Amino acid sequence: MTKEALAKKKLPDASGVYFFLGARKEILYIGKATSLKNRVRSYFATDVAEKRSELIEKMVAEAKSIDWTVTDSVLEALILETNLIRTHKPRYNTISKDDKSYNHLIITNEEWPRVLVVRGKDLTEQYNERDIKYHFGPFTSGTLFREALKIVRRLFKFYDTKDPVGSQKSKLSRGTIDFNRQIGLYPDEASKQKYATTIRHIRLFFEGKKATVIKELEKEMLTHAKHERFEDAEVCKRRIFALEHIQDIALIKNELKLYRDEKRARIEAYDIAHMAGADMVGVMTVLEGGEVIKSDYRKFKIQTVTASNDTAALREVLERRLGHPEWPLPQLMVVDGSTAQKNVAEKVLKAHHMLIPVVAVTKDEHHKPKAIKGSSRLVKQFQNEILLANAEAHRFAIGYHTKKRSQTFLPTSRLG
Length: 416
Fold this sequence. Notes:
- Strands 7, 8, 9, 10, 11, 12 and 13 form a seven-stranded mixed sheet that branches. This protein has a three-stranded antiparallel sheet with strand order 2-1-3. It has a three-stranded antiparallel sheet with strand order 5-4-6.
- Helix 14 packs parallel to helix 15 (about 340-350).
- It is about 45% helix and about 20% strand.
- It folds into three domains: about 5-95, GIY-YIG endonuclease (3-Layer(aba) Sandwich); about 100-170 and about 185-250, no CATH class; about 260-410, Nucleotidyltransferase, domain 5 (2-Layer Sandwich), CATH 3.30.420.
- Mean pLDDT is about 85; it is low at about 250-260 and about 410-415.
- It has about 425 residues and is an alpha+beta fold.
- The chain is built from 17 helices and 13 strands.
């Protein structure tokens, strides 16, 4: 498909799911977007192979047309995308993909079903078909999925205990459940019928059937009102309103503070590589919960800097990275360098009205880390993760730069 053919399409500036279709209208690739218009256009940039991958560049060339479905929110686009990929298994979504590290959502087949987030690698090891009543996923964006689950939890209270509800033997475990009920994290009713309805609504929601949930809640609200159970009717009314006005802001913008649980923190690291200003490139690497997320790594071929200027190159990389609102935002950014690089990163973030903390890893003459500049509290809390992310960025940048140089100096006989 060509850029000219895309120009004839009237893609909406709305959230949704898009489809690249082949010659026989088969689905080649499915993606989600905050803005369908902007997201699909980005596939037709001249440097799509650099920004995404050569595989995606090949997919765009093979595609003959594009279709899309508008959703009410980014959350619903995330759910619809996941369900459609699982149903259709598009070639370019599944090729070279390893979903063992991705998150899955399961609802257990128990007296009091639990709603659990499980890594793909643990799914088959810890559970069998009899244990699972409903299964959704994989969700390729861990941070985005967790933000989505926060919204769902505000709508529907569910159990996510480590062990089946009722099997807790210690006073501490039972006390934790009671406490979570009191603060509204777990269901406060003892009715299995009510909880079964909650589980049904969660299942329908993750099947993309929000309209069905709203209809059932409206019917329930009228029943409560008819029998003068006005408090129950008000609960239904608030839930309906929340479903109709899902706050996408929680999905596309950062909460501007670190998670208290460091196991969930997303850290992005950046590095620049070049040879005296030539073949300058930048990279972004990602850690979540202390684990590298290679599927979220990104490469940037520097376009606006021709001389040896690391800070200017870093500025370009960060500006381009923040131009992707569909990418989950980090809770901490790591830059390679010193005060100059840290200041540049903070200025770019400030210009975008973002309060993401930044730390800089300074190196000695042997390019070994000697200090981390930034919040002492964050450095202490995330020192190992910061150094790992920085090391990954350096390795990734050197590898990318080496590849670019080898292409530049490719022998004439191999260029044809």
